[in-house]
Design a protein that fits this description.
The chain has 2 helices and 7 strands. Strands 1-2-3-6-5-4-7 form a 7-stranded antiparallel β-sheet, covered by helices on one side. With 117 residues, the chain is an alpha+beta fold. The longest helix is centred in the N-terminal third of the chain and has 10 residues.
């Protein structure tokens, strides 16, 4: 599977997750610039992607998911959006509808409620 740049939708999701302050946020912003991506190999993929930052300056973060977001689908079911960091580098943007059903309508990333972990 080939790598590609982030789409506008994907980048907007990550930017929304970075609206709250937390340790490592600025370094994550730097890693997003020029970041490449590819679809994950999960069977229940809702748009989750692997992240491959060009900027390899490691972040000193002790948690794998420093920030996440929640938004409801049109049927009211929560969709969880998680930004993963592995060994100091952003590694995945995970999107999961919590009941396992397909997402009914593309959500507005700017409406995501951000939770700092």
């Amino acid at each position: 599977m080939s790598r590609r740049p982030l789409t506008h939708f994907e980048k907007t999701i990550i930017e929304q997750l970075l609206t709250e302050s937390f340790p490592g946020r600025n370094e994550i912003k730097n890693q997003i610039e020029g970041c490449l991506t590819q679809k994950t190999d999960d069977n229940d993929n809702y748009g989750s992607i692997y992240l491959f930052p060009v900027n390899k300056t490691a972040i000193d973060i002790r948690t794998r998911v420093p920030v996440e977001g929640l938004i409801n689908d049109t049927d009211g079911t929560p969709i969880n959006v998680l930004l993963h960091v592995d060994k100091g580098l952003i590694s995945e943007l995970e999107i999961v509808k919590l009941d396992g059903t397909p997402i009914k309508k593309r959500f507005n990333p700017e409406k995501i409620r951000v939770v700092v972990n």
